[in-house]
Structure formats: C-alpha cells, structure tokens
Amino acid sequence: MNKNKEYYYLDINLGTMKVVAHGISPTATLTGNTENRSVHRVFLTKGQYRKFINKL
Fold first, then answer.
1. Residue 11 class from Cβ within 10 Å (0-12 exposed, 13-18 middle, 19+ buried)?
2. Which sign does the torsion angle of CA 35, 39, 37, 44 carry?
3. What confidence tens digit (pLDDT) does each residue in 11-50 have?
4. What are phi and psi of 54, to 5 degrees?
5. What confidence category does residue 3 fall into, taking pLDDT thresholds of 50, 70 and 90?
C-alpha cells in the first residue's frame, strides 16, 4: 500500500477570482488557507484534477 498521499489543488486569487496555480502536494490543510491571504487553495479529487489539466 502506498503511504505517500497526493492532494490535488487549485489556488484561486480571491480578488480576481482567477486560478493562479495548480498542482499536487504531499500535505493538505482543512481550511484551504495559504501563505498569501488573497489566495485560497481548493482541493480536488484526482479525477477532477485530471479533467481540469486535460482542458488546459
């Protein structure tokens, strides 16, 4: 069993409502807070993330 979890995310600028980053992280926060107060992290399932990446 793979113990290395992966969390898929989008970072959204709350002022502009634009996606400013996306990726995979080994950790997740329950709040979605990031170091930048104007950016919120939204976690996705692996399938949702793959569909998003395929649209780019």
1. middle
2. negative
3. 999 999 999 999 999 999 889 999 999 999 999 999 999 9
4. -65, -25
5. confident
Task: For the chain, give the DSSP string.
Answer: ------EEEEEEETTTTEEEEEEEES---SS-B-SSTTEEEEEE-HHHHHHHHHH-
pTM equals 0.85
From residue 26, how far is each of 18, 30, 38 by CA, in Å?
A: 24, 14, 22
The mean of the pLDDT values for the chain is 93
